[in-house]
Amino acid sequence: MKAKVYVTLKEGVLDPQGSAVMGALKSMRFSEVSDVRIGKFMEIELDADSKEAEERRVKDMCEKLLANTVIENYRVEFE
Amino acid sequence: MKIDDEVIKEHGLSPDEYSRIVELMGRDPNMVELGIFSVMWSEHCSYKSSRMHLKNLPTTGEAVLQGPGENAGIVDIGDGLAAVFKMESHNHPSYIEPYQGAATGVGGIMRDIFTMGARPVASLNSLRFGSFYHEKTAYLVEGVTAGIAGYGNCMGVPTIGGEVYFNDCYNGNNLVNVMNVGLVKTDRIFKGYASGIGNPVMYVGSKTGRDGIHGATMASDVFGEGGEERRPTVQVGDPFAEKLLLEACLELFKTDYVVGIQDMGAAGLTSSSVEMADRAGTGLEIDIDKIPRREEGMTAYECMLSESQERMLVVARAGVEDKVVEIFEKWDLDVAVIGRVVEGGSLTLIEGGEVVAEMPVSALTEEAPVYDRPSKRPEAQDSLLSLDISNIMKLSDYNQVLMWLLSSGEIASKEWIYRQYDHMVRTDTTVLPGSDASVIRVKGTDKGLAMTVDCNSVYCLLDPRTGGAIAVAEAARNLTVSGARPLALTDCLNFGNPEKPEVMWQIKEAIAGIADACNTLEIPVIGGNVSLYNETSGHSIHPTPTIGMVGLIDDIKETTTQWFPGPSKFIYLITPTPTPDEEPEHGLGGSVYLRVVHGLEKGPAPRLNLADEKILQKAVLKAIKAGIIVSAHDVSEGGIAVAIAECCMHPENPIGAFIKLDAISEGVRPDTLLFGETQSRIIVSVEGDDEEALKELITSFGLRCEKIGVSGGANLKIGKYIDIPAEMMKKTWSGALESFLTSGSPTF
Amino acid sequence: MKFGIIVFPGSNCDHDCYHVLKHVFNQPVEYVWHKSEKLDGFDCIVLPGGFSYGDYLRTGAIARFSPVMDAVVKFAEAGGIVIGICNGFQVLTEVGLLPGVLMRNRGLKFICETVPLIVDNRETRFTSSYASEGAVRIPIAHADGSYYANAETVKELEEGSRVLFRYSTPEGEVTEEANPNGSVNGIAGIINSEGNVMGMMPHPERACEPELGSVDGCGLFESVINSLVKK
After folding, report:
1. Predicted-complex ipTM score
2. For this structure, is C203 an active site residue?
């Protein structure tokens, strides 16, 4: 099974990378850009007995390692 | 929102404190005002638990241009230049989010330095993590190191030194103390004064977001789990923005536009505006609507309490607003006039044309509470101090013991960590991390600045007064053996919960010890920081009063390092007569040897005779300046055996030595002889031609100067106890930290 | 002869390069702000180390769109000498003046230390002053210094003697153990096919004064100055 994990900074948390990229885009005359947020994307292959088990395990991974929920949110898609 | 008991409590204020606020205001405060009081009266801003004890520290001296009370202290170094420095803690944020917590700590301390007009030229840090074997340690070490590197490297400020310890007491509460040193021309020093009625108050730097806002609105929904509830939320650092802010500010400082400037650190706009007005005895009127912001819908409460990073508050001369704007816009930073300096001593906030807060500045500062909290020597202290050495098992293989110590967290090389810090940028670092002190040259002069951070918190646990004094003495000794004269120090006082009398006793004692040492050694305290409530589930950290010290090397050519520079150097041990621990067993209390080999953290802390220490340092510095000494190293953790081993482990050319300790070994157990940590001892090496000169100079101070051996050969041999190849020692010592961090299982 | 040092927002070795050229080699040198669009009057342009635009997104990726970079490209095309050090090297690869790319270090961590290098080709205007055999010692300080190019490009570089520096043992042997960051074939510095644009990850400006522990960076600046004098 495959899980796709998206980790993004929480709303309101400063995203220096995003601001720098937005600044560059604007200076390159992509003036329609109003915000850029940068996150991480991970694909995880795993063996699990059931869909529920898979969801539970990946959630655990996110909570413990993949995201720091102090500043980051995560979202998981399963294939 | 209605202000009830719950809201008051969530703002960290006691019922008595709230009554006092009502009294000072002559009415009930509104939410905005309550928020402002809560941060200004917090331990962090008001020093309410420690203030009356901090008064005992000596803060003046010939070279002191700025003592405590500003963003950083300043000492004169001659040639029209001054060193600006300060150390600060970022403990809690670094535990919750190690990378960002450590990074923003570095950012904050650098702003404290450049707000004084100085360019930051070097950083140091003191890091303390839980046990090697605690599940979270490796993760925290990795994150904190990367955070310091990420921010400091990007800023182009070399991180040139520090210390790292591992101890169970930090398992749930690591310490990240960061220090920065800057250079400024003595006639271009800037301070945080909001002077001149009518002058504009300008906001420069990054935009304000809802970062790290304390109190009612944010607190508990973010951190569900008990102990972490009170802790602040973490901000994300933007070193790139700070680099721009640094360059823009330095450009601004070349002009005559600035009346006063202060960074927005903890408590952001609130503390910077209040403190600037307080120093100048003025008032401020601030228009909340003018504050540049990152998010929509922010309230006055949020704008005033936000701890967004990379921001400064500038009071400029009236009429030059446009020129200031031009400089910051050149560097792509936000800049706005957000208010004026006014008469009357009030802080007035306006939003949408309405006054949303109005409070006397003095109520927030002078009237902040000061507590003489009760203190009590812990009942367990006596049993901590007792140590019956006859119960300590004698071991036979001292080679093995030395190797254990060299691979212990206290002593092992920290190269794995400092290799991640750019410690060479600015091309001034003449002594790289790894010796007793690190040294930078001062371009345009012959001078150098040596700097170090030190604290042995086990000594402080056993005897906080002596431990505090030793931290100062050792820092000074580290500078001395590098060829520097100590100028001044900054302290970062990390303790547990001051509402516990036992912790308060530690605080009082440690500060008294620091004061004793500063007075005798004539080293003033020019700034610092207090971090309290470092505890988890009721367990306090060891008292950890970290000392950061800066010394002046008159001629960079006089710099000395700890390593034997080659074979056939004669090795001497310099000590007072007699040494402070007349019974050598006393040097064993609190030693790394006892902790690592016997699993004991107890016994009396080593004794320290400050008068002797002063003479010792004076004599050794004189010998270094006379050009007699080719290497010098102080004996600290791990005792003589470890100190000599460190002298042997030259970064490029490790070398052996042949050592005999007969002169000091009579009637002493081998383990105390080799690994005891008796204070006030320095190991030096000299060329054969200079032996007589050394002896004469040292003994003329009434000190003992004992020849203990000669450098050379492939092995370190100490009497009949130790015989190990220097290469092998170096391999073990260099690789220990990495092998722990990579093979340990960072499952947190 | 005049040197220009480009200052991007986030450059942090600009002062160091300036110091070495001005005070160690007594050369005329000026800073060039990243918004300038002209490089008239300069003989050599240095892109210094640092974290231009924070190196957010990708090292050098945003800096290459700075207004000054058009001028740098024109300057190079007209035969001007261009030196990119560390972040400067990364910018030169992003803008296409040099082939390849600098990837995250093999160990994933920032590395700051003085490393041995061999000078692979001593017959360029950047290396002609390196007379003796054996390794030189120059500091590195980077997180993204692992040089990568496809096999064809590497072959082209090597056959054209366009690799100037490689990481080596202190004895001058190029080995995998001596490779600090995982660069392909230990490549630490290269030139373009015309021989006027050079990029290197090590910092020669940090090794030009005895009190800093090595003077092995001098050879690079001496070579360039000599080549300009001859011109």
Report:
1. 0.97
2. yes
